[in-house]
Design goal:
By secondary structure, the protein is mainly beta. The chain has helices at about 1-10, 15-20, and strands spanning about 30-35, 40-45, 50-55, 65, 75, 80-85, 90-100, 100-110, 115-120, 125-130, 135-140, 140-145, 155, 160-165, 170-175, 180-185, 190-195, 205-210, 215-220, 225-230, 235-240, 265, 270, 280-285, 290-295, 300-305, 310-315, 325, 330-335, 345-350, 355-360, 365-370, 375-380, 400, 415. A hairpin with a 5-residue loop joins strand 19 (about 215-220) and strand 20.
Length: about 450
């Protein structure tokens, strides 16, 4: 690959190859996860085309993905324990290891050199060299009473809510132990772990704010959320939104909202209520609730357009075929759409002029103009694979990224959408507002 690139740059006999595969960046590329066939479809958002696909990723049920620092590669974390590295420009599987028995997500370090994977089985976090996928650190999520009075503990906890934070740190929560850990990986051979205990029962999901300051864990076992200020960790974990949760609900909860579905715009966060047909408005300066917006169903994801002006909301059963749009200036609903059954993920293009919406049960990903709300393109499914849950919280089927290309390795001739793809989610390119955490 290096010799071929040098030949392109120096003009030594590779003119034809370069002409066939022109130089290009990755800023308008994306991925659609084809869960039913264990592959990903590479898409281009500028022309609504599908340059190709990558096969052989294994079981992608509830998978998640993050991107390399230059966003030339995507890293997929499968529930079967697989870690796969995919080249966006070459459309090849660049590497794959099976590192655990049940993985739940991953993250890339601030400097792009480390890939972290959180595991249910075995409980803990494993750290890999992002270039080679070689294991560089293993952090068991131990808790309980240690034999002989030691501090390690004698049980392993499931790990959830793994994010990357400034300073080459990873932050995650322990479901069984009710703890938040901050792992400093400046020296991968000797990770420094700081534990915050008794944060609440069964943390089930988490987010990090776009500025990388606050880590917030949702609690399945009780109401409220746990907040850790990463700028001032000595202040410890404090509880916020004490009424947030299932307590006192008059409605059954069909799907717990994912915390990475929060929309943070300026000094306000729009948050899906649990078991209620409402979106909560939170003041992020105080983390207090300041308002509620009535919506048509129980919200799951609440996604903000890059400029902060719109928030798009999808819903749990029985309203999961609809999407509503909120104008953040006056907090009112301005549009209701019906994309199709099983709407699971919504992701915006880099400048926010379009949004990609996955309709799982229709085997389709649609593109909508955010100014006119008109559907402008469709990515259809070719194979009759069975529908199932989405590829992961934040976790999508389409993933957005930015970055630069590498020499001759541009895409092959593209096919115009609709292109066959058993798509189950959507997430697209260039969201710098979510620089610290992209879970798809």
């Amino acid at each position: 690959m290096i010799s071929r690139l040098l030949a392109c740059l120096l003009g030594f006999g590779a003119t034809a190859a370069c002409a066939a595969e022109p130089l290009r960046g990755t800023g308008d590329l994306g991925l659609v996860i084809e869960r039913g066939r264990g592959s990903v479809l590479v898409i281009e958002t500028s022309t609504d085309t599908a340059p190709g696909r990558v096969e052989g990723l294994g079981d992608l049920s509830h998978a998640s993905a993050v991107f390399s620092r230059d966003e030339r590669f995507a890293y997929f974390f499968g529930r079967y324990g697989g870690l796969s590295k995919v080249g966006l420009l070459t459309r090849t599987l660049a590497g794959r290891v099976v590192q655990g028995g049940n993985s739940i997500g991953g993250a890339i370090s601030q400097d792009g050199r480390l890939a972290a994977v959180s595991n249910y089985e075995p409980g803990g976090v494993r750290i890999f060299d992002a270039a080679t996928l070689a294991l560089v650190a293993d952090i068991p999520a131990t808790y309980g009473q240690a034999a002989g009075g030691g501090s390690a503990g004698n049980k392993l906890s499931k790990v959830i809510g793994l994010v990357d934070a400034p300073g080459r740190r990873f932050v995650f929560s322990l479901w069984d132990a009710g703890e938040i850990w901050v792992a400093d990986l400046r020296d991968p051979a000797r990770p420094e772990i700081r534990r915050f205990k008794d944060i609440g029962r069964q943390p089930y999901d988490a987010l990090i704010t776009p500025d990388g300051r606050y880590y917030i864990a949702g609690l399945f076992g009780e109401d409220g959320l746990a907040l850790l200020d990463l700028w001032d960790p000595d202040s410890g974990v404090r509880r916020i939104l004490p009424s947030y949760g299932q307590g006192g609900n008059r409605l059954p909860v069909y799907k717990m909202p994912h915390l990475d579905g929060w929309a943070i715009a300026g000094d306000r966060a729009l948050v899906p209520a649990v078991g209620a047909h409402q979106v909560l408005v939170i003041d992020t300066r105080t983390w207090a609730e300041v308002g509620r917006i009535e919506v048509l169903g129980q919200p799951v994801f609440v996604r903000v357009r890059p400029d902060g002006r719109q928030v798009w909301v999808n819903f749990a059963l029985p309203d999961n075929g609809q999407v509503q749009v909120i104008d953040t200036r006056d907090l009112r609903i301005v549009q209701t759409l019906n994309p199709g059954p099983g709407v699971l993920h919504l992701e915006f293009e880099p400048k926010g002029e379009a949004v990609w919406v996955s309709a799982r049960d229709a085997d389709r990903v649609d593109v909508y103009d955010t100014a006119t709300f008109a559907r402008t393109a469709t990515c259809r499914r070719r194979s009759p694979a069975a529908s199932s849950s989405p590829t992961a919280p934040g976790g999508s089927g389409c993933e957005r990224r930015r970055g630069s290309g590498t020499g001759c390795h541009g895409p092959a001739p593209a096919q115009r959408l609709p292109a066959g793809a058993p798509a189950v989610g959507a997430a697209l390119c260039g969201d710098r507002g979510q620089a610290w955490h992209r879970r798809v």
